[in-house]
Design brief:
Layout lengths: L6 H20 L6 H7 L4 H7 L3 H23 L4 H13 L6 H14 L3 H23 L5 H24 L5 H15 L3
Amino acid sequence: MSLPGTRGGKRRQLILTAFHECIIEKGYAKTTLRDIAKSAEMTASHLLYYFPGKEAILQHYFENVSQMIVERLEVFAPESTQGQINLLADLFFAGKGITRSEIGFMLECFGVAVHDKQLRDRKKKLDRYCKSYLKVLFEQSPGGPETAEDAAEIGYSLLIGLRTAAYFDRRLKLKMARRLFHDGLTKLAGL
């Protein structure tokens, strides 16, 4: 694997960017290796030097996005419960942290994960991390540890449900989805 600052690392990043653009434009199923290569201004055979196929690009991209989410949550952890809730709401619903196109891309990944074991396992790992993060958040809240696991499941369901609904239903504006998510987590935390 090429390091980020090297020529190979730059090419891999170019491929990932091209992949993202193609998926957003055409969807995963309709995007071909040739489309990605053309967008990255290289041949398909050259692209195969960096990734063994479209599935490998998707797995690498999903891994990067998952890692970005984990890193953000780790930065939020020292904040107060209310501070973390505010930061989570902003990250997922204010359009600053995770953009609409990134949510669309993640939804494409989730669809592919239904039949791709490696992607499904990575999604499961991300889900479990997010729920454990929320569990710790709720353990520190007035509701305490006895309700923290249930609150984490409900909180994560709110996140996924509202973010998905806001993506598909333009009547549910991000501002409203953010408020519902924020208020829901605040109530679950007993604040």
